Amino acid sequence: LRFDEKVRVVVFKSEVKGVFCAGADLKEREKMDDAEVGLFVKRLRNLMDEIAALPVPTIAAIDGYALGGGLELALACDLRVAASSAKMGLIETTRGLLPGAGGTQRLPRCIGEALAKELIFTGRQIDGQQAFSMGLVNHSVPQNDEGDAAYQRALTLAKEILPQAPIAVKMGKLAINRGIEVDIASGMAIEGMCYAQNIPTRDRQEGMAAFREKRAPRFIGK
Predict the structure, then answer these.
(1) Catalytic residue among 64, 76, 92, 158
(2) Which of 16, 77, 142, 189 has the fewest CB atoms lying closer than 10 Å?
(3) Segment 165-184, tens digit of pLDDT
(4) Domain limits of the chain?
(5) Domain spanning 166-213 has what CATH number?
(6) Closest C-alpha to 154, from 20, 10, 50
(7) Is 72 a catalytic residue?
């Protein structure tokens, strides 16, 4: 996906009705020794980092349970859409664990330190509407009879992104992701570097021409 220039947006969805991702198999985990658990969690964290580093926008379509590592997967995505009936939570403390695949870092960056601490300390599960009110998800939608309301809304969101200039979108994502980790002066420098990479693109020229000619632009990702 990282190197396929035809990919403009990645949507993560589940093929299991009612479950986005229920997290680790604790029966399997129980059979591991301490070293195996450490390696397992390190590999899981690396996977989430790879998802977060995808150059194109990513959307998690949460149509059911997103618990533990399942919510960490959703947090590794850029955008999240949830059915109002979905259940989400970093529930690790209820099993003698703590989030180990990025949850302690991405949740506070998403909803703020105090709310993240409350959810992690209590292991509480929240529904899609509560998640929306916290800013954990971008959209909360009523579930439909097919059980894929979040996925359908995610597709609509993806279709809003698709017509936009691919390189500009990628550079925008990079500027946000890198800039949010540093002070604002450094962030401005990062934005400037990303903008500079976009200036010589054919898509920027097309955007200007389309505006002048009062027509829809035809971006090609070059």
Answers:
(1) 92
(2) 142
(3) 999 999 999 999 999 999 99
(4) 10-161, 166-213
(5) 1.10.12.10
(6) 10
(7) yes
